[in-house]
Protein 1
Amino acid sequence: MIHEFAVTEDVSEDIPEEEAVCRICFIELSEGGETLKMECSCKGELALAHKECAVKWFSIKGNKRCDVCKQEVRNLPVTLLRLQNNQTVRRHAAYATHRQQVAQYRILQDVPILVMVSMLAYFCFLEQLLVSELGPHALAISLPFACVLGLLASMIASTMVSQSYIWAYASFQFALVILFAHVFYSVLGVSPVFSILLSSFTGFGISISMNSLLIEYLRWRARRNLRSTQLNQSQQQNEARNLAGVEDGGDTRQQDLENQIQDPNPLQHGQNHS
């Protein structure tokens, strides 16, 4: 069986290129274009293919690895692989642009909804707060202030935080505004208009300040982690250098000992020569 396999392999290597078949399209090489003998571990007919077929096949794969011998084909056209890489880069760039456009579309879609929800929430709260004392006249105060506060709160939320945290930030702003509005109007007895103005400035100011403090804390934490990582890397490098110095010193001492063993009394050795 071994001899038969060797004979078969030799026969397959001796097949003329005109009679061989392309390993990719299974059409005779004489009927196609230029023949490419792939420089990998494949032998005989397995290494022969149409150059155009090989270019298309390895372009689809995106690498140089042969499917039969699992080795890299060394004589593939370089321009092909560069073209493939350029196409991949363009595809990734187009995908990133598409994702950015989708994110912008989502933001533009969420902001109008946030504006309407904020206006409705502020209107309900102000109407409930003022209707007990002002009666029907509460509508004249709550409606314009609700529109202004809803629009302002939505603009601040979309500007200060990312798209994932817009609703959480807007809810936090709303909670602060209604809290201080209740304190100024019900507890301190401030007039309705001034209560709304003071609560708006206070609530928006506190939310903006807390957001800025949180951002600065996260930046400081990131810088601290980076410094600790760099310090650990420098310590590891110093330890590696110290170990290398100790090993070099040990080798030097060992060499000195070997020299002393080979020549235990250099003075006597010099007298003998004299």
Protein 2
Amino acid sequence: MRLRAKMSQPKKRKLESGSGSEGGKGTEEEDGEEQEAALERPRRTRREWDQLYYKCYSDVSVHEEMITDRVRTDAYCLGILRNWAALPGKTVLDVGAGTGILSIFCAQAGAWRMYAVEASAIWQQARELVRFNGLEDWVHVLPVETVELPEQVDVIVNEWMGYGLLHESMLSSVLHARTKWLKEGCLLLPASAELFIAPIRDQMLEWRQGFW
């Protein structure tokens, strides 16, 4: 599994020249007003943060970046295919299914029924992809945040690994689903992960730190 890190470019700040001390004073007053306005804004609730999270994953470009990472996608595919003996005739829960690609892999490996759970608006594309691949009788896309299934499942799959392994904050949801829906002694994919850290030297990073 290849782990990559994103680095956003520093935002350009518009510099305006002022005359004498008045210009500096005006700038200080504006900064003070902005700080006061920020303090007056109400803090977001947990629900609002969740909605922002789901909105981010509604953007198809996010999923495009993940799927076109061939090392990452092939690793998930091979992990499913190497466990093909545990899948035929089984029921699978795909937690945070995204575009439904893992559910499609499981169906191709012989799983009988897939519950593809996705709370963001990308579930619409997932349902279309399932239909396009002729798997709508096997893969059921559920556009919900908290799922209630009619049965426990034999397998749970999930793309919970993000940048730096834990960035996507999906691990807690997977563990909750495992406790509630996975039959005892059954399969969780992936079941383990390793994180390797190495020191690097990056000129852009050094420039940004030196700037401040």
Protein 3
Amino acid sequence: MNIKEELRKLVTTQTNLRFNDLEINPEKIQAIMINEVVPEDPNQDFYGDDDADYLKTTIPLFQKAGLPISSISDILEMGVYITNAVKSPKYEYTIEKSSIENSLPFLEKEINLFSNVKVILLMGDVAKKSFNMITKKSLKKNIVPSISTYKLRGTEIYYGSIRVMPSYIMTGGNILIEKSKFEMASHDIAAMAVLIK
């Protein structure tokens, strides 16, 4: 299955949306990590160039979690699919609510492509907000409480049988500078790996 082809089946007039152009066996995916937003340059995304900016922080997080990862292929082989909540690049410091809302149908469809998911990691506040907006449609409430991520750490949150783990944004140079967030995000990745073994 090609992710991009599946998501393009949703009718839209938006032209600036970016989807992962990736052939994948959806049955093998047991965990989804949702990052905040696609980069301006598609080559810098998770499934772009081998030395993409997004991988420069993601791979070290997996390695810090004690996992033998050196590429996005290794991550996929583990049964982990990584995507972005917002499918259009941001051009300001913050992400507008309309950008989140415009991407929701695509993120929801993308999540639903994978029937064997056991864990969803929400990497950052935008991912948390997006997932809450999706789940609120059926549950009529936020699945993830709207409090600081550090206060939620260790809390077991479930969406049906899927474990939902709020964590910290995994892209951008700041994650490598903010050592405590790097440590916590890598710890969350290690916990995810245990759940999907």
Protein 4
Amino acid sequence: MPRIKSITSEEVRRRRREVSDRARAAELVLPHGMREMREALGLSRREFADLVVIRLTARQIADIETGRVNPTARTLETIGRIFGFRLGFVPCGSGTQPGAPFAWKPKPPTPEQSARLRARHAAARKRRLK
């Protein structure tokens, strides 16, 4: 994965303002919003995960950013605190297509992902039955 080039403190401030403006306009939605927040700080996934406040692995950050997992409310609150955000509700249609019930819908898994998931569940069942 390419390393994010270092940015000036002025650039970080500008990016943080942009992210805050997008959040106020209800345009900052998961999973892409998480990546925008991280990139606004000029941090790689590993650097973002290493922040003492977050306590996540780089893999968990990647999974959230790509929509493979649904983070808990507590995780979202912790991450949002870095930007002075808090978790809340946004009226339907705000930041999305008009009338859309949710801001983000997960993509269905690919056949390969489904097969891996089935294999993992089968292995877990086997372990429980032992």
